Amino acid sequence: MSKIELDKTDRKILEILQSDGRLSNQDIAERVSLSPSPCLRRIKRLEEAGVIRQYVALLDPDKIGLGLLAYVNVRLEKHSEGSSGGRLPAHSPRTDFAQAVSTWPEVVACYAMTGEMDFLLRVHVEDMDHFSRFMMATLLRHPAVLDVKSSFALQRIKETTALPLV
Amino acid sequence: MSKIELDKTDRKILEILQSDGRLSNQDIAERVSLSPSPCLRRIKRLEEAGVIRQYVALLDPDKIGLGLLAYVNVRLEKHSEGSSGGRLPAHSPRTDFAQAVSTWPEVVACYAMTGEMDFLLRVHVEDMDHFSRFMMATLLRHPAVLDVKSSFALQRIKETTALPLV
DNA sequence: CGTGAAACATTAGCGGC
DNA sequence: GCCGCTAATGTTTCACG
């Protein structure tokens, strides 16, 4: 569940796989100056420990017609529970909203956040038209939503899935 | 550069590769009811067209000691250019800032945004201590930065790199 | 689009440091 | 403990029908 011990070679392997997840074990082995079998054993160990969570292909949003990236701050209605003490209710506005979000394909990420706004959503859509349809027909129609503030990406300065290896 | 024509089979392939980027061509071929060679030809075409941008391994931030995810809104100083008309200056606060951001490993994403705040940064760090060091020693020390507002992720409701295929 | 064959990659077992 | 060899098995890739 928590932190894993990584030596220099492990970090090198992770760096390589974060930048090219399809390199062959042989190539990786060569780059970390190991023979294929111990290299593969390390990779397997990292996968089983959950350090490597998944291998994926990253697509270009523009090439598949998703030209607009929005970040939407959402504030939910305050639910006055009152009665049942500190217990988490099975159907709070929060859990309802979290469940709904998971089913909306436009929303690729959603975090509960500190600060005034309760949630931050990352939304990929075709254009403003699609975005406003999503807002009117889906997000603003959800009963738990109190208000929202949207911002749109004008320019991608930096964007990587590779985490810094400390 | 712009949109590419995708048929049903292409979309199926992309969906599969977005969820498992290391599946063998043979497996993919089977799942889309094709034999390996036309399947490989399609994948190669999608890679060359730039629809598939990259294959990567996704790591678990907690497992490598990056327990804190922050979103930081940054506002830059207003630069009074005045003289040189509409031309983009080679050293505006904006381009300086964009270049600096690219070199900070904690910042994994940065977008220029609409709205009051000029930039949105996604920042992965170990803990609050590391975060406040990053703020004091790096972000707030940059001459172009006017002010910042930070929020922290309390809970990951949804997080995927897979884009919805329209 | 599919077949087949050569080139290449993966992976388990075993011995050595 | 971790490394590297070997050998069987499986995969990719391309010319050709």
CATH architecture of the largest domain in chain A: 2-Layer Sandwich
CATH class assignment of the largest domain in chain A: Alpha Beta
SSE pattern of chain A: HHHEEHEEHE
Indicate the percent of residues in helices of chain A.
Answer: 25-40%
Looking at CATH, the homologous superfamily of the largest domain in chain A is: Lrp/AsnC effector binding domain/regulation of amino acid metabolism (RAM) domain
Structural shape of chain A: elongated
User: What is the chains' assembly state?
Assistant: homodimer
Biggest interface: A-B, 68 and 68 residues
The biggest beta sheet of chain A, please?
4 strands, antiparallel
Strands, helices and their partners?
2 copies of one chain form a homodimer.
Chain A: H1 8-19, H2 25-31, H3 36-48, E1 52-59, E2 68-76, H4 93-103, E3 107-113, E4 119-125, H5 128-139, E5 145-159
Antiparallel strand pairs in A: 2-4, 2-5, 3-4
Helix pairs in contact in A: 2-3
The first copy, chain A, binds a DNA duplex (17 and 17 nucleotides) through residues 24-26, 34-38, 40-41.
Features of the shown structure:
Alpha-Beta Plaits, 2 domains, homodimer, Arc Repressor Mutant, subunit A, DNA-binding, alpha+beta, 166 residues
